[in-house]
Amino acid sequence: MAAVILEARGLTKTFGGLRAVDGVDFDLRRGEIHALIGPNGAGKTTFVSLLCGRIAPSSGTIRFEGRDITRLPAHARVRLGIAYTFQITSIFPRLTAFENVAIAAQRLGSRGCEARARAVLERVGIAAEAGARAGDLSYGHQRLVEIAMGLALEPRLLILDEPTQGLANAEVDRFAALIEGLAGGATILLIEHNMDLVMRLAERITVLDGGTKLAEGAPEAIRADPAVRAAYLGG
Ligand SMILES: Nc1ncnc2c1ncn2[C@@H]1O[C@H](COP(=O)(O)OP(=O)(O)OP(=O)(O)O)[C@@H](O)[C@H]1O
């Protein structure tokens, strides 16, 4: 199996005159936990939206498992094993937490989907709230429902956009343990502002700034990089 699971080349997205993502070359290694960081407006959400097919690139290519997926719609990418959760919650508030996750699990086929839904709710730590209406859960627990929905797809690549936003400290710890438990199986691409968490979880980090790649490397190298410190880590 190839070491690289996803490869972007010259990936660009313009909004009018703004180059939100500007000619980015990017490789994800199979099984790694990779963090994407950068200041607000750096292009992180736009970049992962291009990878999962929520928006189409202005130019550039994306390959997944060696296959060109640049023009593939989002649902077809989900079928190939790319799952994602975004900052804006996508749960159905009137359905229970369990129903939300079961709907996601069903995309892999209806056989066993209820058992799979229960298992992932257990895994993210909210099994006790399976029967609660999702809209009544705390914001943090709604995020965990979303992560459960992503995991229910048994993805090969899981993209998480600020998954710990709104989580309490104990929930952040549980989330970190969950991601560590997935390591080696699924490949994980994580947009995260909590630098302690990034340094704990990520094997490699890519720093975006102004739509371009400012730096990429292991956490220690990124922490020490003068350009990164100037642009992002506050000198
Ligand atoms: N649909 C859109 N139309 C116009 N401009 C957009 C659109 N989406 C994003 N942008 C702009 O593209 C730039 C990159 O935005 P993006 O949300 O990708 O950054 P980000 O790094 O994810 O920021 P944050 O950390 O604040 O979430 C910003 O200047 C933003 O205003």
TrEMBL record:
Q: Which PROSITE patterns does the UniProt record give? A: ABC_TRANSPORTER_2
Any keyword Nucleotide-binding? yes
Q: Which UniProt keywords apply?
A: ATP-binding, Nucleotide-binding, Transport
What's one GO MF term for it?
ATP hydrolysis activity
Note the InterPro entries from the entry: AAA+_ATPase (IPR003593), ABC_AA/LPS_Transport (IPR051120), ABC_transporter-like_ATP-bd (IPR003439), BCA_ABC_TP_C (IPR032823), P-loop_NTPase (IPR027417)
Instruction: Identify the residues that the record assigns to the ABC transporter domain, covering every copy.
Output: 6-235
GO cellular component: a single term: plasma membrane
The molecule here is called: ABC transporter ATP-binding protein
